Amino acid sequence: MDGGAWWAGGAASFDTQAVSGHHFQPPLWKKPSGLSSPSRLRRKERTKFSCADRTNIMDKTHYTIMEYGAIRSAFSAHEVIRLTDERAKPKSNPVHPIKLASCSATGSGNMKLKPLNDTVSSLLLFFFLCSLHLHYSQAQPEANATGYPCSANLSSYPCHTFAFYTATSPNFLDLASIGDLFWVSRLMISEPSNISSPSNPLVAGQSLFVPLNCSCNSVNATTAISYANLTYTIKSGDTFYLVSTFSFLNLTTYYSVEIVNPTLVPTDLDVGDKVIFPIFCKCPNETQLRNGVNFLISYVFQPSDNLTGVAASLGSDTASIIDVNGDNIQPFQTIFVPVSRLPNISQPNVTASPATSVRRVERKGAIIGLSIGLGVCGILLVLLIGVWVYRHVMVEKIKEIEGDKERPLVGRGSGLKAEEVNLMADVSDCLDKYKVYGIEELRDATGGFSERSLIQGSVYKGSIDGELYAIKKMKWNAYEELKILQKVNHGNLVRLEGFCIDPEDATCYLVYEYVENGSLQSWLHGDRDEKLNWKNRLRIAIDVANGLQYIHEHTRPRVVHKDIKSSNILLDGNMRAKIANFGLAKSGCNAITMHIVGTQGYIAPEYLADGVVSTRMDVFSFGVVLLELISGKEAVDEEGRVLWMSARGILEGKDEKVKAKRVKDWMDEGLLRESCSMDSVINVMAVATACTHRDPSKRPSMVDIVYALCKCEDFFFDISEDGLAPAAVIAR
């Protein structure tokens, strides 16, 4: 519907302050019994009282059109229904609005109107506007109607955060539907929400943490709002108000939706329209980060809530919530709860249906008897399998420690496993994010996976619809890698475009963006005529550091790559670096594993000795890459000498000239011919030395490393290892 048509294309002047003091949104009125649908009313019926009523109103005050034709000025039952039910309708069934201009005007500018009692009209107007004000204050308070301002130049944006959401009946009682609404997979909701099985149904009111990518977005020349950008497809009957209130549960407001969709007319929505819904969020500022706040959880304050209860349930405190949101918190207002980590949500158990329970009771005796008979056999069988598995695992472990191996979990001919079935289900929740390719499509793209298309290892170059892609044939279970790749999105990580599972032998193929300039290893240690200058090397180091900082600090649970090395760093056409190969990556850290995998020369000592998995092992490997960039040498030379150990004593001592001479003797000869800044090289050398410290607790975090590398041109930079401690870096 054309909202402007109600008021003759905006011919009248309106002022919202004369009505209620703020923008408002009308409630949804139920249609009185006995009335036909507004869309079916005859033109004469729909205009019966509108002209007279509008004149009485317009004689007394002016108004602002906000949504749905704005003011419900006609108080007949027909008009109230039609004006308050401006929902999206299929294009095949348009509703034709009646324009104000349809009332004839006199020469004096006054309309010829059917007389109506002014007192009755005024009373109706008074009670109607009071009801609007009351309803709107209950649903979407003025405090956050337009969103939350932010500064686009803050380093804290963008960030990864969460919204507190509850399952609602009937449309959002499973993770798949909620994931579709928020454009995330079921796994991305189930893990932070402490749900063991993503496929289980939910119960109404069940609490969830939904991940958001929060950013600071400019809405005009002077205003920026902090929100997560979600695209919603309008369905029949949808309005901005309905979706923001009943689908997103007041995590946004209809007025904010209007602001970020300036080209859409709220009263003229068609089924299939794409609308941006800004989900309110905030990123912790530098002070909050220093104080240990990692997330500001978006939470809609309910009428029954109190700050003490909210703080206790989310692992925060009342003072911190007030510090972020102020003390004038209104019901249905989105507030931000500062936490250092997500609390562990207690989830209800999903019980079997009554019919299933009855059958189980009837068969209980038979099951107990049968289980006793099979129990002994089962125990013996498990013991035999356990012995075989133990021997097999030990053999594989020995093989993989000897070289650069990766564990195969799915072999040819093994058929689709449960993990692959789950993988298909989870990726199907976000098919708009990843494309599912057919195996014949990939064979055509790579010439039947020919040697000519082979890039390296099991990665092939293929052309699909004129675009180049890197197609990786997996030699192990792709479930974990895809599970992690669904959670990450950063310019310094190689982007996954889609996947394919060959139905014949269950081989999985991952289709990545094609990064045209190959690996960093080929540029540093290959036979290329062109060499990297220091500016390019420093830029590559910063790019890789940014990518690692993202997976360490902005994913929950944190992702550990576990295989950072120069061959897994790819360079695009602008010589910008992207981290590739998440095949060994692990979601979560500070774990212990008995399965040691990796590449000699890059493996952190604590991981090799004790199997400790943490972000500090990526820091160590990154330090080795920095040493490669400086020296041009490989992580392990032909005689088996490890690069990071040979670099340990170069920056020892207090004599700066001696240290500079050692660095010159050790660095790449090509850089010496380039006459690059020695201060910059020494600073990067200091970062590399700190990263490769034997004690993981003394290694800097990736946040500190990014800061240090960006400051490497500062000649006053503290190059001591102590200077790279978090406190020292923040102090600068």
Automatic annotation (TrEMBL):
Main location: membrane
Domain Protein kinase per the UniProt entry, residue ranges: 404-716
BP term (GO), one: response to other organism
Keyword Nucleotide-binding belongs to the record: yes
Location of the protein in the cell: Cell membrane
Molecular function GO terms recorded: ATP binding; protein kinase activity
Superkingdom, taxonomy of origin: Eukaryota
UniProt KW Signal keyword: yes
Region (Disordered): 24-45
Comp. bias regions, Low complexity: 30-39
Keywords of the record: ATP-binding, Cell membrane, Disulfide bond, Kinase, Membrane, Nucleotide-binding, Receptor, Signal, Transferase, Transmembrane, Transmembrane helix
SUPFAM superfamilies from the UniProt entry: Protein kinase-like (PK-like) (SSF56112)
GO CC field: plasma membrane
Lipid bilayer topology: Single-pass membrane protein
Stored Pfam families: LysM, LysM1_NFP_LYK, LysM2_NFP, Pkinase
Protein name (record): Serine/threonine receptor-like kinase NFP
Organism: Vitis vinifera (Grape)
